[in-house]
Design goal:
The structure holds two protein chains of two kinds. Chain A is α/β, with parallel strands linked by helices. Chain A contains 24 helices and 18 strands. Chain A is about 40% helix and about 15% strand. Classes of the chains: A alpha/beta, B mainly alpha.
């Protein structure tokens, strides 16, 4: 019999096995012992005999257990499962609730595929996964601590959900209330830790056996990576991680992963959409997250050129080259007779507007389109609408609605339009293209002239900021990994964005604090692909979880971060000003520039010193526009050596 | 000191005065660009239009530097706007302060031509 070690925690499966043994051995004696010990009690309580000492010990003591070294740990098998899915990194903040799998990953798994990356906040870890996927098209996984770690991560999970990005999240938990450690580990356990993210994940599970884990992990990977993409969650029981595997006849197996084909729009609806588009006088294409892959860009160009229709790119992905003559601003929809919206976050707000300027500060709605304009939609998000969180936005009536993946539907739509195009319309369509080309050229000239206003201003204009930055990276294979904060879309307006990885979009859920970790995650992916990563990093965003700067240095992730340091939570600055104006009050700015509570000044944060303290090369504050180009040039040289670099620039508000 | 005397057209002023509860005919303001800059910051104009009146597409802030609008139209717009910009009424922002702001905006340097800025020649060309 193995030597009993009372320090060894008893998990519930061992407990059940041991209890069964104890029950069998104890079943012989209780009646006899009870009769001898308490005849008076027997009279008073004839139906409930007290246990003898042996039975009492079996029920309340620590049963005899097999050695904890018997068999392989469950978490080793989990690592075997994870390794089948080509997951390169695992950014995470360490925690006791997943110590079993953590140890297996770094020792049994040799810390490769995935490699554990040390993060200082769970929100940073999920944000890194988010950014990495958008740069590479490959999902990452993260581990979060039970309850509190998952709570830390939630905003980033919501961003990933709204941005349709797959992230594999595993949360440690210890379900066995009788055997988990009391105190802190019990504070950090829950019946159902997944509940807090269930409204904004595609799927979640709580496996209770190694085989269940294998099935669920492959399943969660498949669900997350089938369009529409999204985060998924698994609660990982402490006992399941640490318990030795004892196979009872059935061999454990790892299900093979085969990717699922993305859902496509119904063929009849595709034909009807094609008929409307082919016969439209002024069709307009509006896109938001169409190009899941570079192939999506190619397909969208083919559609636009076939129709000679303007494309309005709402910018949550790089969908369409802004250098293409059919790339046009949102204002073109006012002339449309047919609009096809693909993977839009908010169709209602595309064809309507909300003006936050009515009586008493209550906004009013306006339409942006002509009466009778036909609306077509292709959206995979229609397939996963949930109830609680309102990311589905206002309801918009649509003439032809196709729940399905737009990138996957484009080939059949293009073929259907070719078949539907009347021969006598081809000249008119070509003419339409020429007028759009003329407008495109004029629009670019106007944009450049707008950029020239306040060119020499200090604080530095956002147009100057992005133009100086582009001058230093234009000859590199650059990737703009994030533009947290708002720089008046100057990068989209002035930089030639032609490759899928040159623009990765925004956070999705507008949860502030996305920019810094997503940039580091995307830069990690770009590092491996030989690309140069640059972010325009806002001040407020960075301060949510600046520890991710350390992660970048620790794991040698090259990234050029140029601060858009406008010294305020600028969106909120304007909200308070607006409300004060509605109420005929002068907003109280105290001793700052913006309304009390919205400024990040007095003192100004020295972001360059913050970054330096964590090992970044940094320079700043840059207040003279003449100093900006040389500072960025220095930083680019540093980043080329494989280090991150930050330039702290004091900027105009937007 | 950039100080100019600005006259507001009586007809337009009447409209704005009506809205503002003011009575004024042929009102003249001794406008000060210096005071106007302070007011421009104090009343939050910079938030959407930038410290130098350069505007912002994402804040729906129009370019105000050397605005071609006449002062009376400028004041009328501020009082009555029902677009994305909230209206500023006289109890909050006086006509005199608006005239000062106007002087400040007119004092800003004429924007360079984009073609005279070499870096803008290096950004996208199509």
């Amino acid at each position: 019999m193995p030597k009993k070690d009372p320090s060894i925690k008893l998990d519930r499966r061992k407990f059940l096995a041991a209890a069964a043994v104890a029950g069998a051995t104890g079943a012989v004696k209780p009646a006899m012992a009870a009769t001898a010990a308490a005849p008076q009690a027997q009279l008073r309580l004839p139906s409930a005999l007290p246990p003898n000492a042996h039975v009492a010990a079996a029920e309340t003591g620590t049963p005899q257990m097999p050695s904890s070294n018997e068999g392989r740990p469950g978490s080793d098998f989990m690592v075997d499962v994870i390794k089948t899915l080509d997951i390169k990194y695992l950014p995470a903040n360490p925690a006791s609730s997943f110590r079993g799998i953590h140890e297996s990953l770094i020792d049994y798994g040799k810390n490769t595929m995935p490699e554990f990356l040390t993060c200082m906040h769970e929100e940073s870890a999920v944000g890194m996964c988010h950014g990495y996927f958008k740069a590479t098209g490959k999902p990452l996984m993260t581990l979060v601590h039970g309850v509190v770690g998952l709570q830390h991560s939630t905003m980033a999970v919501y961003n990933a959900w709204c941005d349709r990005v797959p992230v594999l999240i595993m949360g440690g938990n210890d379900l066995d209330a009788a055997h988990r450690a009391p105190g802190v580990p019990t504070f950090h356990s829950a019946q159902d830790i997944n509940a807090i993210v269930r409204d904004y994940t595609k799927w979640d599970d709580t496996p209770v056996s190694p085989q269940h884990f294998a099935q669920s992990f492959v399943r969660m990977y498949k669900i997350a990576t089938t369009p529409p993409y999204g985060p998924v969650m698994m609660a990982l029981d402490g006992g399941l991680q640490t318990e030795p595997i004892r196979e009872d006849g059935d061999k454990l197996y790892i299900p093979k992963f085969f990717p699922a084909a993305p859902p496509q729009g119904d063929s009849g609806a595709v034909k009807e959409a094609a008929r409307l588009l082919a016969n439209a006088e002024q069709p307009v294409i509006v896109v938001d997250r169409v190009a899941r892959t570079p192939e999506g860009v190619t397909r969208l160009i083919a559609l636009a050129e076939l129709l000679q229709a303007p494309v309005v790119d709402q910018g949550n992905r790089m969908n369409f080259p802004n250098t293409h003559y059919l790339a046009r601003p949102a204002s073109v929809i006012r002339d449309a007779d047919v609009i096809i919206g693909m993977e839009l976050s908010d169709y209602w707000n595309t064809v309507n507007g909300f003006i936050d300027n009515g009586d008493e500060g209550i906004g009013r709605n306006v339409t942006k389109i002509k009466p009778g304009t036909k609306l077509i939609s292709i959206s995979s998000v229609d397939l996963i609408t949930k109830s609680n969180y309102q990311d589905f936005q206002r309801f918009q009536s649509i003439d032809v609605s196709m729940p399905g993946d737009a990138e996957a539907t484009l080939p059949s739509l293009i073929e259907a339009i070719k078949a539907a195009l009347p021969n006598d319309r081809k000249d008119a369509i070509a003419k339409r293209g020429q007028s759009i080309r003329d407008a495109h050229v004029k629009g670019l000239a106007a944009t450049k002239q707008a950029a020239a206003v306040a060119w020499d201003a200090s604080p530095i204009s956002t147009a100057r900021l992005v133009t100086e930055l582009y001058a230093q990276i234009r000859d590199l294979d650059w990737s703009l990994v994030s533009t947290a904060g708002n720089t008046s879309n100057w990068a989209n307006r002035l930089w030639p964005i032609e490759k899928h990885h040159q623009w990765l979009g925004a956070s999705g859920g507008y949860g502030v604090g996305y920019g810094a970790p997503a940039s580091v995650g995307a830069a990690l992916g770009n590092r491996d692909l030989g690309r140069f990563s640059v972010s325009i990093q806002s001040d407020g965003d960075l301060m949510y979880a600046p520890g991710v700067l350390w992660t970048a240095v620790r794991h040698k992730i090259p990234l050029l971060a140029v601060m858009h340091n406008n010294r305020g939570y600028h969106q909120e600055v304007m909200h308070l000003q607006r409300l004060a104006s509605f109420r005929d009050r002068v907003v109280n700015i105290g001793k700052d520039l913006g309304p009390i509570g919205t400024s990040i000044m007095n003192p100004d944060i020295e972001y360059h010193k913050l970054a330096e303290s964590m090992g970044w090369w940094a320079k700043g504050p840059i207040v003279d526009p003449g100093d900006l180009g040389p500072a960025i040039r220095e930083a680019v040289a540093v980043v080329k050596t494989g280090q991150p670099a930050l330039v702290n620039v004091q900027t105009q508000p937007r | 000191m950039n100080s100019v005397r600005i006259f507001v057209a009586p007809a337009v002023l009447a409209l704005t005065a009506l809205a503002a509860g003011l009575i004024g005919q042929g009102t003249a303001f001794a406008a000060s660009a210096e005071k106007g800059k302070a007011a421009y910051i104090q009343y939050g104009c910079w938030q959407c239009h930038g410290f130098d009146g350069q505007g912002s597409v994402t804040s729906n802030g129009k370019v105000l530097a050397r605005t071609p609008l006449p002062l009376d139209a400028f004041i009328a717009f501020v009082r009555t706007t029902n677009g994305q910009m909230p209206p500023y009424r006289p109890p909050v922002l006086t006509d005199e302060a608006l005239a000062d702001m106007y002087a400040y905006l007119q004092s800003l340097p004429q924007p360079k031509s984009a073609s005279d800025i070499p870096l803008l020649g290096e950004v996208r060309s199509q």
